[in-house]
Structure formats: structure tokens, C-alpha cells
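Methods: example folding runs. The two proteins below were folded one after another, and each record is reproduced exactly as written to the output file, sequence line first and C-alpha cell line second.
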Amino acid sequence: MVTRAITSTIVGLEPRRVDVEAHLVLADLPSFAIVGLADRACQEAKHRVQSGIVNAMLPWPSRNRIIVNLAPAALRKEGSGFDLPIALAVLAGSHQLPAHRLLDHASVGELSLDGRVRPVSGTIAVAEGVRRAGIKLLICAAESAPEAALAGIDVVPVHHLAEAVAYLRGEEDIRFASPPGSDDLEEPFVPDLAEVRGQERGRRALEIAATGEHNVLLAGPPGTGKTMLGRRLPGILPPLTRDEALEVTRIHSVAGTLPTGRPIMLMPPFRAPHHGASAAAIVGGGAIPRPGEASLAHRGVLLLDELPEFPRPVLESLRQPLEDGVVSVARVGGHALFPARFRLVATMNLCPCGARGDPTADCGCSPQRISAYREKVSRALLDRFDLVVAMPRPRAEELAAPPGEPSAAVRERVVAGRARLRDGDLLRRTEAASALLDRAVDHVPLSGRGRARVARVARTIAALGGAESVLPEHLAEALSYRSPVGVPSA
């Protein structure tokens, strides 16, 4: 007899149903084989499952040849989440639990050698796949249960294989897990904008970026607060809606980066990769496609500190997600799409030594070194920054000033500005503003993309100001962020 347990595997971010079939027959030479295009972690399940069953005080079918098939066989399987369904299918095949009960449940989880059920990445995506397959019950590790419950199915939390078996036998009742409430979540620490002294133009640019979802480049000498300012952008972004929170949670769950104590991410994510990261680490990829930093920053902020220090191929790989809001990864084994609608904040010096633009230091860089430094960032990438801000060194009186406006107050204006932007009938350009934009195309100059971005920024500025239409002064401020003095163009 063939027994079957049900689970899911993740392809990109999409769950695919997998039937775990177990066939046990008496044999003179007992064996245990797993087939169905399983990776090494799946193959190693043989040892974890056998040890877990024995340590759960359940008899191991030692006189049987055991074949486990992960169907469909043409779909690649990876990870340790198949341990629990394999163990349950084997136990059903050896008549230690009712096989028909497995058809009403799906299961996912890694087994430790002592039989404990461990959480695995992507549990919420597995739960969503189970729901789509018409199955309403999922057995998983207790630590993953609140996350899985977000998918809208009944989740059976278990700590040990013996507990799962007792539940399926009807010997133990287990209360279904509940989705996490806001009171159950640990609040992430977010730096406050009040800590930034001076840099009013940079603060203004950040507020505009948060309202209109614009990309920002902060350029200036070291020590002017570029990184400090960039790290405070998430604090003025509105909280995620429930649909956005589930989308972001799914990405981080699949990537294994879901923060401890936060089964759902309610705040916009923040990612700040090191400049030594590869293109696959930034935009996603690998032999089996996985989301990169661009997708982990979806609905949030991606900070690239010291932009020219990143390899140019890495920077160029960001051009597609910046335009399309999605990363497309094609491999021989399949194709994956990862959402990547993030706000890019980048910082850079004005020269290799960093002294350029600092009145207190002398720049010793030769024109050749400055030219080579500029060429590290292409004009095409620079054109995708809506706001380019020159960051001067703050004066002594600014540094000694009391704390500035806090993030909470700025966030209120951002929320109100976004509401105005969503009204498509408002904020049309006046004739004078349109004439100014037309003149700027020839005099700045502006590309077609640059013209569209200036118009978007001007509309955001008008929304923040509560104006009924986009006026020339709004457009003039938007144009001032395109090419500030001292920022190199490459």
C-alpha cells in the first residue's frame, strides 16, 4: 500500500503542491530511498526521520524496504521542510497512524534527531499553497504556527513528532494557532529624524521622497550625516497595509530573514548591504533563485552607502528593478519573479579622498582620479535618482542646536501628502509651470526620463504643501534637486 502526505515546495516565491508518497515492503535487505529530484538536504532527511521516529518512542519499520517519492518528480525539491511529511507518510505506511487522516492535513517542518519539530523558512508561503490546494489544516512547528495562520487556514502547532502522531491518532487535542495581534509583536527599533542636526535641505528631500516614493542620492564630504539621514527614512514612511505586510512577510520568510518575535512585518523593511555584495546578493539569483536585497527591501528602503564602492555591474543590475519594480531571474531549471518596489537611498563622496566640498580640508585628488571615480556610477543610474542633494558640513551652532522635528510629526505630513497624491484629479500643472518645465528640458538639460521625474517630484511637493495645482515654485524646487553644485555627473 502507498500512503501519502501533502506539503508544498517554494519556487521563487510561489508555492507548489508536493505529494510525499511512501511505499513500504518487506525485504531481506532493508533500505530507505528518497526519489523525486530531491536536493542534498532532502536526501539527508532519511537520517533525521529515522532517528526522530526512534526517539519519539515509535517503532521503526526495520524489516522494510522504504521508497519515498516526492511528486511531481520533475519539480526540484530543496530544504529540510519535507522531514515531517516524510516521517508521517512512513508511519502511516507502517500502520502507526491512520492514513486517511493525512489526506485532510498538510505538514511542513524539519526534524531534529531527538524528534523535535523545527521551524523552516517559507512557512507562510507553504500555508498559502496548502490553502489554494483546498486543504484547510496544516501541521507545523509551534514557532512557525502564528506566521502560517496569517494565510487563513487552521494551523496545528506541534513541538515534537510524538505530539503530531498523537494528534493524528485522535489521542490528543491541539488548539489551533491564532494569527499574531499587534500586542504580540516586538516593535522594531527605528532611528528618529530628531537626532539629525542641521541638514534642513536633506531632511526636506527625505520628506519628499517618503511622500512620493522617490529615489534619493546624498552627496557630500564624510561626516556630514549622509548615512545617518538615509537610515532615518523608514521612520517617516507610513506603516504597511495588511496586504503589503503579508507580501513583505512572505518574501522575508522565504529568504529566512524574518526577524525573531515578529511573525508579520508591519513596518517598511530597511536593508543596507555591504559594498562587497555580489549582483546575485543584491538583485537575487543563484542556482535555485532566491530573493536578493532589492526584494528584501520591497515596500521599504534600500540604502547603498558609498555608492561608487559597489562594483559597476552590481549597480547596473539595479536599473531594471528601479524601473519595473520587479526582478526577473531566469535559470535552466525555471523562472522566478521577485517583487522589488523599494526606495533607493544612496550616499557618496564628491571625490576619492572625500575632501572635495569640505571648506576645512584640501582635496589632493588629480583630475584623472576624480574622473575615474565619477565613471564608477553611470549616467543612466544617476538619472534614476529623483532627488540629488548636496550635503554641506554642518556648522557648530547647528550641531549644538536642540533636537529637530521628530519622525512622527514628519510621518503625519507624509501620510496626508500621499492621500492627496492618490486623488488623480488634483495637482495638475499650471501653464506657467509647464512652460518652466519645457525650458528646463533644454537648459538643465533633462532627458525624457528626467523630465517625467521632475514633474513627479513637483507634484509631490505641491501635495505636501496642500496646493490645488502644481505651481512654478513647486517645479523650481523639483529642478533644484536634479543637479546640485559639486555633485559629479558621469
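Second run, written to the same file directly after the first:
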Amino acid sequence: MTLRNGDDSEMANQLVEEGKQSPADVFLTENSPAMALVGNAGLFAPVAPATLAQVGSAYRPTHGQWVGIAAHATMFAYNQDKLKPADLPKSLLDLAQPQWKGRWGVSPAGADFPAIVSALMALKGEAVTLQWLLGLKANATIYRGNGAVLKAVNAGQVEGGVIYHYYYFGDQAKTGENS
């Protein structure tokens, strides 16, 4: 067995370049854009129905070409010195409102961000997602990476930030200094 590791898009592009001659039996990635790239190239074999049945239909694609094995949650990390629980946004959508201008951070250039937008679009539709993205553009402070968002929240540069939950838990497993 040979194991190749790399960035999601790097590995996906390598698979597409290799095409049907790829020696790969399994492609494990955490982000949907890489899955879509390989899937659109027609490089996935169908997953056995018994395997698909182990994952709820809401959490797997209808085409049956791949299946999720883990999930991550989008969360709003906040600085407890700046925000009290009663003042937290009730929804991700609230952050598009003018009262949140300059108060929150996000990392839209990261590989995680398209999944957040895709989920929002699937749950709320294109019009609501567009309004949220326009609100993000108007209101959010942009950081490079979820770790940077977490550090900015901790330092009080912003009151809160949209991150994936595992950045918080990863920090807690280390020194916890940023959470």
C-alpha cells in the first residue's frame, strides 16, 4: 500500500491528471470542492449500497459516488469579555445585519469556506445566501485562516468569528491560549 498526502486540491488535481491510470483506490478529503473536481472527471466508482445505507440520506449525495465518514460544524467563536450569551447572534444570517459591522471575523479564502456557503445555499436558498455574502463583505473583518480568526477573537480584535469547530478543539488540545 502506498499513501500519498497533500492539500485537498493538490491531490484532486493529481487524480484528475492521472485519470483512469491512477493507482488510487481511496480518496479521503474534508472539502467538497476537491470531491466535486474528482467526481466531475468521472473518476469515482459507485459505493456499495450497504455502505451508503450506513449514512443518513440527508448526509450523502444521491449519485452514490462517495460517502461522508465524518462531519464538522460551523460555529461562532466569541470573546466572553466582549459578548455575553444574550447578545450572541441567533443565526449565521444575523451577521449580515449592520449592527455586526466590524464586530466579527471570517476566513473566506480558506478551503473550508465554500462548504459553509454551499450548506447555507442548500438550506436557505440562493437569494438568502447572496444577502449573507453581501453582509459578510460589508461587515466582516477578513483573516487568513480559521486559526487567525480564533486568535483575533481571543485578542479582542473582533468580538466573534465564524470557524469550523475543530479549530477550537485543536487549540484546546494544545495550549488553549487562543480559545
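Comment on the second run: Residues 126-139 form the longest helix (14 residues).
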